[in-house]
Amino acid sequence: MLKVNVGISRKVSRDYNSTGFSINLEGEIGIPLDHPERVLEKIQEFYDLAEESLRHQVDRHEGDSAIASRDQEPPSPRNTNSGTARVRTPETRRESASTPTSKAETASTKQINYLLEIGRRRRLTTTQLEAEVAQILGRSVGLYELAKGEAGAVIDALKSGSKA
Fold it and tell me: Which of 17, 45, 58, 108 has its CA 20 to 30 A from that of 77?
């Protein structure tokens, strides 16, 4: 018996966030090695099965019903204890914000960090960066109070040098 282990992974990105998917299949092939074409065909079947299964998982994750259910569920807590720097998560930002801008999901940590990096590259203070954000959105809002869609629009505008 020949043992086969097939692994496939895919990264799906949207709104400056990404989700990783992976699948590993293991099985046995009962074909003797003196028939290499048939062995390769069987291995290809494992890859095809893994690819189809991964495609199914990605489709389930991106389907309308999955997106709608994620919009209704509160976000799950994130582990932010990597390294020594304290990273403010959307959950802690929500708790510390005095007046939330809307019920929309707040910007991700990656989005906020990217905005701060853009500000550092332009040698802007946080206050100056927030002033640019206010110009882009047409209202005053703190970086940590941005909704996910607003953060995406601000990032796009800052990258292109225009207003949203």
Answer: 58
Q: Is 14 exposed, middle or buried (0-12, 13-18, 19+ CB in 10 A)?
A: exposed
φ and ψ at residue 140, rounded to 5 degrees = -80, 130
Q: Are residues 144 and 94 in the same domain?
A: yes
Does residue 9 fall inside a structural domain? yes
The answer to which of 30-34, 39-43, 83-87, 148-152 has the lowest mean pLDDT is 83-87
The alpha carbons of the chain give a radius of gyration, in whole angstroms, of: 23
State pTM to two decimals.
Answer: 0.40
Q: Is 43 left (phi over 0), alpha (psi -120 to 50) or beta?
A: alpha
Domain-located, residue 141: yes
Look-up of token digits 């292109």: 160
Tokens of 66: 């999955």
Q: State how far the Cα of 76 lies from the Cα of 126, in Å rounded to an integer.
A: 28
Task: Look up the domain containing 38 and give its range.
Answer: 2-67
CA torsion, ordered 32, 37, 39, 43, to nearest 10 deg: 180
- Chain centre to alpha carbon of residue 129: 24
- pLDDT confidence band for 131 (50 / 70 / 90): very high
User: Does position 100 have pLDDT exceeding 50, yes or no?
Assistant: no
